[in-house]
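Reviewer comment 2.1 asked that we show a complete input and output for one of the modelled complexes. We chose the heme C case, as it is the one discussed in the main text.
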Amino acid sequence: MNAFTTLAAAFVIGALAVVGFAYSGLYDVSARSPHSAPIDWLLSTTSHASVARRAKDVAVPNLDNDDLILAGANDFDAMCIGCHGAPGKEPTALARGLNPPAPDLAESVEFMTPAELFWVTKHGIKMTGMPAWGATHKDDELWPVVALMMALPTLDAPAYQALLRSAGGAGHAAPGHHEPPSVAEPTIEAKEHGHAHHAH
Ligand code: HEC
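Response of the prediction step:
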């Protein structure tokens, strides 16, 4: 055998082994068993690189906008905290059973850009519990949630509750919902007080 046939034979045997393994049932799909270190590396590296690459095309509106943060509070509370938690809230049973776990978003915003946060919120992440909220929501409904996420590091439990109280009917998930403010035109008031909730 020359080098090429040896290589081709090795490839076929390798491919058959992968297919055989898939059919064998040996792999443990249980959410209770952790990934091995190499698989964990492969999945998280692939995921982070994929998000970073795709988020480059996202046009980020001005998020230093208190109206936007308020508009995102009810929706964040209704759609996200069951898995991700919120300041002062115990993790739910749902959150405790997830593998991979849903990260604490107050920590995620420290190393993810607003464009990346938006991209993940809109498109979700395959084979994890993270849903694609863009399947059912317009961009204008998701940017307020991103603005709220960015404010999380500055919110303790009482401040989070106070924000929910002042959010009133803002956000589509709120009772008596009204439309979110346009992300393109922050109000005069929001411009003046824009940095109040924000770490940056
Ligand atoms: C059903 C559970 C679930 C819900 C509800 C959910 N998420 Fe997630 N989310 C996850 C999981 C699980 C991950 C981790 C995915 C991974 O490991 O790649 C995640 C990851 C993320 C990330 C990336 C964080 C990081 O550090 O990499 C962001 C941002 C995010 N979610 C935002 C949201 C927002 C905003 C909402 C509400 C609109 C939401 N999620 C609702 C399960 C959920």
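Confidence is low (pLDDT under 50) at residues 185-200. We note this here for comparison with the apo prediction described in Section 3.2.
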